[in-house]
Design brief:
heterodimer; A: 236 residues; alpha/beta; 28% strand; B: 382 residues; mainly alpha; two-stranded parallel ribbon; 14 helices; 2 strands; 67% helix; globular; binds adenosine-5'-triphosphate; binds magnesium ion
Chain lengths: 236, 382
């Protein structure tokens, strides 16, 4: 097993404010890694630092290649896709055009067959192909955001709080979908969540992020048995 | 949604779709034929001006409708191009079409520079910057005329730059033939601009424009370069506004510092809003509706004696036009095209052609089909 993503001493922030204070993280190929953290811990900042959306320092290696100096659009074409927090569907574009927008960095001719593939995986989106994305429900929009990210043919999917604002049943279905993408399509996933219970179920590796620092990391079982973690994230 | 169920479904690219397209094309041909047949120069000129307005509205639609950047400064690009045409024909003996290309390049470059603040400013703040540019233009234009024109010829405006029909057209250098020639040039340019916007909109690049408008963060994580997209869109839109200015100058034959003011920009915006922003045909429909409503009111409103006495003295036509536009936008916020679409959807909808299956057959890998999503997905949150 090899690490698809290696992060060492990653620091990032906004202007003069540093939010991430040197975090380390390994995401093994073919696994689901979860970052747990409270509001404002820096989870979104961490994903944005990995995908190059904000200035960062430290080491970020993807697929054995340093991407610390790489432009965000290049990082996407290397195989890192991000589902932003709050979905970020293009409300005035149709579902179809949203999906095609996900393939923005691609120049090959297999976009249409990929489209068909993901419509098969997300049949509800297929039914709503020519509908404007803004008219979809929250759950459908989250599905669309994930499907759209898949259109760039990522090796690594960064997923920012997909459960945000969704009913428990929908969240469960969503996590099952992510798990299936991981198991059947070999997609490596780095998931950011506050919903620890469900996230721990599908995770192979878990990190705890608190005020810009990783305070614990390990297997889901080890993390779940930690008393402090149970109190803070599992409500037990 | 209920209306969609009742409405007849027309398959995109199907025979019914083609028949509808053919009918629309035929209607357009008849319309154009009626415009040119037996027309005098002044009415041809009106069509040309309406088409120039349509081109300006198309350019604004690209920028504002599809990319979400507001500009109240587009009259300036039209002005730059108009001055360029006038000056280069009069003083450099430039060929009209060469000056069109050069003016477009110039407008593109100026547009890129002016688009730079758009990287840091949004919405009303960007509107203010472009407003300032529209505000400064008349002064710049005045200075230019004084130094480059008045100093040489003594005239206080750029004049005497006729765009003559080339000999291969068989048209002569008469007022009638010049008007006819410009009409066809205007039509060709308008169709060209329409096709450019349309192809852009339905392409990969066009989707990225709308993506940037709808959600910058999401567009960026998709690999869209926000800065490049915004600045280039501003440049292309400015070049297109330049086409409009070139056409107006060629039609009117004289330009000065008052030809392209903030009011000109407002006219572009009104035409776009009236027709329907972010639609493909809206700018053209809106421009014609605006132009001919304006023309009608200007000719007739001053004679309407049922209007309260005091109104008759002021610029009554502009007042009524303003009221009309506000009233209409209140009824149809999506413009004329949006309104037609809403009505049309109850009669028939165009459904997309089916997606061709993936390379692998679903039946071969039944386990690969995650179709056990709960059926209430979505309903409970909507
Ligand atoms: N654009 C920004 N400019 C300045 N500060 C920011 C910006 N975005 C986030 N921050 C700050 O960075 C810190 C971490 O924010 P971040 O969005 O990474 O938190 P998070 O862990 O994703 O929280 P949540 O669960 O609420 O999404 C917060 O204190 C926040 O105020
Ligand atoms: Mg966040």
């Amino acid at each position: 097993m090899s690490a698809l993503l290696t992060v060492r001493g990653l620091s990032a922030g906004y202007g003069p404010i540093e939010v991430l204070h040197g975090v380390d993280l390994d995401v093994q190929e073919g696994q689901v890694a979860v970052i747990l953290g409270a509001n404002g811990a820096g989870k979104t900042t961490m994903l944005r630092a990995i995908s190059g959306m904000i200035p960062r320092t430290g080491v970020v290696d993807f697929n054995g290649q340093s991407i610390i100096k790489t432009a965000p659009e290049r990082i996407v074409s290397l195989g890192v896709a991000q589902v932003p927090q709050g979905r970020g569907t293009f409300t005035d574009l149709t579902v179809d055009d949203n999906m095609r927008a996900g393939a923005y960095v691609r120049h090959d001719h297999e976009v249409v067959s990929d489209l068909a593939l993901w419509y098969e995986t997300f049949p509800r989106l297929k039914d709503r192909r020519s509908q404007k994305a803004g008219t979809l429900s929250g759950g459908e929009q989250q599905m669309l955001a994930i499907a759209r990210a898949l259109m760039s043919r990522p090796k690594l999917l960064l997923c920012d709080e997909p459960s945000l604002g969704l009913a428990p049943l929908i969240t469960k279905a969503l996590f099952q979908t992510i798990q299936r993408l991981n198991e059947q399509h070999g997609l490596t996933v780095l998931l950011v969540e506050q919903n620890a219970n469900l996230a721990l179920d599908i995770a192979h590796h878990v990190c705890l992020l608190e005020t810009g620092l990783i305070i614990a990391a390990g297997s889901p079982a080890a993390i779940a048995s930690d008393d402090a973690v149970r109190r803070a994230y599992l409500g037990a | 949604m209920t209306s969609t169920l009742r409405a007849r479904q027309i398959r995109y690219g199907g025979s019914l779709h083609w028949i509808l397209r053919a009918i629309v094309a035929a209607v357009l041909v008849v319309l154009v034929w009626r415009m040119v047949s037996g027309a005098v120069p002044s009415s041809l000129g009106k069509y040309t001006e309406a088409m120039a307005l349509a081109i300006a509205a198309l350019s604004l639609n690209l920028l504002f409708g599809f990319n979400g950047q507001i500009s109240i400064g587009h009259s300036t690009f039209a002005g730059i191009s108009a001055f360029f045409l006038g000056y280069s024909i009069r003083f450099w003996d430039n060929i009209a079409f060469v000056s069109l290309v050069e003016a477009c390049v110039l407008c593109f470059l100026v547009g890129v520079v002016i688009g730079l603040p758009a990287l840091r400013l949004k919405g009303p703040y960007l509107a203010l910057v472009t407003l300032a540019i529209a505000y400064v233009w008349p002064t710049v234009a005045r200075q230019f005329i004084e130094r480059k024109v008045t100093a040489v010829t003594g005239e206080s405006a750029l004049t005497k730059f006729l765009v003559r029909p080339p000999s291969w057209t068989g048209l002569k250098n008469t007022r009638q033939d010049r008007a006819l020639y410009l009409f066809w040039v205007a039509l060709a340019l308008m169709v060209l601009c329409y096709v450019v916007v349309r192809n852009l909109r339905t392409s990969r690049v066009g989707r990225s424009l709308v993506a940037v408008r709808d959600n910058e963060t999401a567009a960026a994580v998709m690999g869209v370069n926000l800065a490049r997209t915004k600045v280039l869109t501003f440049g292309v839109s400015a070049a297109m506004a330049g086409v409009s200015g070139w056409l107006i100058a060629a039609e009117i034959g004289t330009v000065d510092e008052n030809s392209f003011t903030i009011l000109t920009s407002i006219k572009y915006i009104l035409a776009l809003i009236l027709g329907g922003a972010a639609t493909l045909t809206g700018p053209i429909v809106g421009a014609f509706a605006y132009f001919f409503a304006d023309d009608y009111l200007k000719r007739h409103a001053p004679h309407w004696n049922w209007l309260p006495g005091k109104f008759g003295d002021g610029p009554i036509a502009s007042f009524l036009l303003g009221v009309l536009v506000i009233g209409f936008v209140f009824i149809a916020p999506q413009g004329i095209v949006g309104l037609c679409r809403r009505i049309g959807r109850n009669i028939a909808t165009v459904v997309p052609e089916p997606i061709r299956g993936p390379t692998h057959e679903p039946a071969n890998e039944p386990n690969n089909l995650p179709n056990n999503l709960p059926n209430n997905l979505g309903e409970s949150t909507s």
